[in-house]
Amino acid sequence: MIGDFVDLCTYVYVATEEVYRERVAPYDARPGPRSGFTDSELLTVSIVAELVGLDAETRCLAYLRRNHPGLFPLLPERSRYNRRRRQLAEATNRIRGAVMERLWWVLEAEGADLCAIDSVPVPAVGFHHARHDHRWYGEADYGRVASKKQTIYGFKLHLLVSASGLILDFALVAANEADGTLAEQLLSDKAGLAVLGDQGYVNGPLQQLLAWRNRLTLLTPRRKNQKQQLPAALTRAINEARQIVETVNSQLVNQFALQRNRAKSVGGLATRVQAKLAAHTLGLYLNYRAGRPLLALMDLALI
């Protein structure tokens, strides 16, 4: 039972170390001696920090040194921690993927073939500052957020989410990329799924291709200007079933501070996004093992 911050760190470390030895360590060919502060410990700190809302690295390390000095006695200083965290970004994603696969199999009986796809904006700089000098030229771009009727400068995080709220896949792209285009990237290697999207993912040729090649149904409400409309009851059912991805988006924005950009480069942003997604997935896994509602992630914010 996870009752406090130390318990949370312990459970996350055990899960992380197990997957690290299986999915990361056999392929680690980095030269030189290893630090006393292991990769699994660093990944644990990175994931736990996102779960409890300590996404600022300086604040996180200060909290650990002040309140739990014996928990990670070889904790590095911030610049070294940041450098190693970025070096382990791919390891973070492998751990997320391995834990996701475990949950995906055990949740199969709960409708694993039903998914939802959506995007959430990730601003790089404030809209009114985008025209001035900044570090994101050539990487971020302007994009329209239809749900909020606003334009941002930055990126969009596209998510494929199961009916249980498990993040199956993702893509971080410039905000000007069309949703329909990204659907092919996320779904090209999937098969046998029923995927629910909003009107931004309407793409007739792609929907026909996925149905023929992948046995995958991409179902979206129709735009008002389309001649053939879906029955009103089916449109309502799609919108209701898609609420799960809206819930996940809300958790990433509010609990995991997805839209609070502390990164100074695309690599740094990708590292932070991968840590947040790994933390979300590990949170679901811990709740499943504890017999709690999967998406009750605020129960894990033990600080």
Compact summary:
By secondary structure, the chain is an alpha/beta fold. Helix content is 46%, strand content 15%. It has a domain at 111-261: Nucleotidyltransferase, domain 5, CATH 3.30.420.
How does this model look, in words?
This protein has a domain of 151 residues: 2-Layer Sandwich (Nucleotidyltransferase, domain 5), CATH 3.30.420. Helix content is 46%, strand content 15%. The chain contains ten helices and six strands. Helix 1 crosses helix 5 and helix 5 packs parallel to helix 10. The longest helix has 25 residues.
Describe this protein with a few key phrases.
Nucleotidyltransferase, domain 5, alpha/beta, 10 helices, six-stranded mixed sheet
Order of helices and strands: HHHHHEEEEHEHEHHH
- Structural Rg: 20 Å
In the predicted model, the low-confidence regions spanning at least 5 consecutive residues are none
Percent of residues in helices comes to 40-55%
What can be said about the biggest beta sheet?
Answer: 6 strands, mixed
CATH architecture of the domain at 111-261: 2-Layer Sandwich
- pLDDT average, as an integer? 88
Number of separate helices: 10
| Name of the CATH first level of the domain at 111-261 | Alpha Beta
SS-derived structural category: alpha/beta
End-to-end C-alpha gap? 16 Å
Outline the fold blueprint.
Blueprint: H1 5-24, H2 39-52, H3 57-67, H4 78-87, H5 89-106, E1 114-125, E2 141-145, E3 150-162, E4 167-174, H6 179-187, E5 194-196, H7 204-213, E6 217-219, H8 232-241, H9 243-254, H10 266-290
Helix pairs in contact: 1-2, 1-5, 2-10, 5-10
